[in-house]
Amino acid sequence: MNVIVDGKNVVKRYGDFTAVDSVDFSVDRGECFGFLGPNGAGKTSVMKMIQRLAPVSGGEITVDGLIAGIDDRAIKAAIGYAPQESSLDNDLSVVKNLVIYARYFGISGEAARSRTEELLLFFHLDEKKDTHIRELSGGMVRRLIIARALINNPKILILDEPTTGLDPQARRLIWGKMKELKQKGVTILLTTHYMDEAAKLCDRVALMDDGKILMTGTPSDLVESKVGTHVVEFTAREPVEPILEKLGEPFEKLDGLYSVYTSNPEMVNKTIEGAVERKPVVRASNLEDLFFRLAGKTLAGSD
Question: What dihedral angle (degrees, nearest 10) is formed by the CA atoms of 31, 204, 148, 152?
Answer without folding.
Answer: -30
